[in-house]
Amino acid sequence: MPPALAxxxxxxxxRWALWMPVAIGLGIGLYFALPSExxxxxxxxxxxxxxxxxxxxRARSWLLVPALAGTLIAAGLCLATWRTDRVAxxxxxxxxxxxxxxxxxxxxDRTERGFRxxxxxxxxxxxxxxxxxxxxxxxLKPGEAAPAIGAWIRLRAVLSPPGAPYxxxxxxxxxxxxxxxxxxxxxxxxxxxxxxxxATPGFEPILMLRRWQADLTDRIERALPGxxxxxxxxxxxxxxxxIPDEVNTAMQLSGLAHxxxxxxxxxxxxxxxxxxxxxxxxxxxxWVALRxxxxxxxxxxxLAGAFAYMLVSGAAVPTQRAFLxxxxxxxxxxxxxxALSMRLVALAALVVLVVQPDALLEASFQMSxxxxxxxxxxxxxxxxxxxxxxxxxxWLAKASFWIGGIALTSLIAGTASGLYALxxxxxxxxxxxxxxxxxxxxxxxxxxxxxxxxxxLMPFGLEHLALTPMGWGIEALLWVAQWIAGWPLAxxxxxxxxxxxLLAMTAGGLWLCIWRTGWRWWGLAGLVAALVxxxxxxxxxxxxxxxxxxxxxxxxxxxxxxxxxxxxxxxTTAWARRDGEVPRTTFPRQGPSADGRLRCDxxxxxWRYDGWxxxxxxGPADVDEDCRRAxxxxxxxxxxxxxxxxxxxxxRADLAREGAHAIRLRSDGTLDLRTVNRExxxxxxxxxxxxTEKDPDEP
Length: 699
Prior knowledge:
Elements: H1 3-11, H2 20-33, H3 42-56, H4 61-87, E1 96-111, E2 114-124, E3 135-139, E4 152-160, H5 173-178, E5 182-188, E6 193-194, H6 205-223, H7 227-237, H8 245-254, H9 264-283, H10 286-291, H11 294-312, H12 317-334, H13 341-355, H14 363-392, H15 395-425, E7 427-429, H16 432-457, H17 464-485, E8 491-493, H18 499-514, H19 523-531, E9 542-544, E10 551-554, E11 560-562, H20 569-578, E12 584-586, E13 591-592, E14 598-600, E15 604-609, E16 612-617, H21 623-629, E17 632-634, E18 648-650, H22 652-658, E19 661-665, E20 671-675, H23 676-680
Parallel strand pairs: 3-5, 11-12, 16-17, 17-18
Antiparallel strand pairs: 1-2, 1-4, 2-3, 4-5, 4-6, 7-8, 9-10, 9-19, 10-11, 13-14, 14-15, 15-16, 19-20
Helix pairs in contact: 2-4, 2-13, 3-4, 6-7, 7-17, 8-17, 9-11, 9-12, 9-16, 11-12, 12-13, 13-14, 14-15, 14-18, 15-16, 15-18, 16-17, 18-19
């Protein structure tokens, strides 16, 4: 190892442990990047070999450091492999039904058309039990009420396998469903009927917790109807499906959407309210204050309350991370120890990755940890400077410090999480700092304290006494969200960034935040590189969905020309969003398109682009003429070798084999062709998906 590098690493020795979850995350990421499933023992063998090398080379830093890193990376590979084995369950191979489906309700949520239920112990009439999904999600008929959690129901439904991505690099819902054991999704064609239990009930705490969560949500929404009640339920129980779409949109455009997902802010407020409230109450009793360790008792009460809040809110990844960090801090208080904040984040990340390795791929994991790591890193560097000035500051200066702290916190957390939101959702919000500066005091000193009081009053049936004034605060929050969402340029949409941008921003951000000496600034290079594609978006020239029902071409103004305005609406909406919310227009039935590149008649559509002639014949009878003159023929029916004259041909057989296509036309006559199945490889979650042009939940 070069002496200069060894010296820098030695100076950062206290920070080495912070890279442990990063190395394990690399191993997990490597697992999901593989084109096929690795042998089950390969991670264990590699971890063992690297551990042996680390032991033998423990006196040589140039050997010890990479060997330890290799051990942790291999451990991440093991964790991901074991997690896949644990959750593996049957997935439907093809569309089924209408058929009678029986199962137990384990979850319910709202959609625009009504309710959707998730069933376990699923039974499908005349379907092999060995191929029946462990869980199925079914959208009920419009207007039908949701059955109770734990109820056994019977209904007729159409079920399909979870869908493949709409284009290469898009969100893989099939993988998401696999790790939740959702092997079938569909819609009901009959009303729900009660069914005889198909399994003996036992002690199932998760189901009991979900039933409790649903009951609390109902009580909150009865006491506080309308959007305010839906947001109160989101803040208290984590149930967000009742929030209207226009409210969700306003919260997103104003930069306040993070308030709807229970994470560090909410759990820290609940723990803080309980800690200081309990300590103040005990301190008011002289006999208790003089004889009992009230600070430790308050910490224990806050820990119990935070744990209950995590459970009742559904224990999502951000909530788990926040609880782990809060728990370590409170336990440190009870043990008269101090807690190191960045190590808390590393510990929380380590626990989450060990328990749920697939969480690494989720936006909630990435955004929540990015925000917390950036905040703690900034505080570590700014704390000495702030402490020195606060000691000499008067009340006016302290008030300005408080206001500036809120603004700086919003700026740092919003920027860090916003980078990941940009990658996942192709949108950046511009006024989030202003919105949070207005709303954070309202949330901290009005809304969340009343939420805690409402929880305390619920056993007595008096929760409305706290929920009603809580609703006033929520109404004010909504007014701020809608006001700022209406500002000019409240947000900007961008074309989807490539995967390497995500890797570059993660590597650069970690390097910048974890190290403490001067070389941490090298991380800025990764952050800058990650954003370079924003100025030079690389959009496909042609897209074809996996079913062949819809084709999209790049318009002259950057818009999308789509072959159908009705079929494949969900697909084309996703394509337009990945291109930065570009407008869509349909192919002309006869004649040229607005930009003159596309011309259609009764037999085919011909598209001229950058020296290419692309033909889209309407039927098998129209293929021969198009094949003689076109450079690329796209047929949504089998061609079977009838198109030898064309340089390139894509037909239904290609779509069935490879899934959705994304094509870039090069001036040298070659294609840059990407397909969904080629990029996903053969993994446990890719074995059976229908190439549908719509959400399989929808009729």
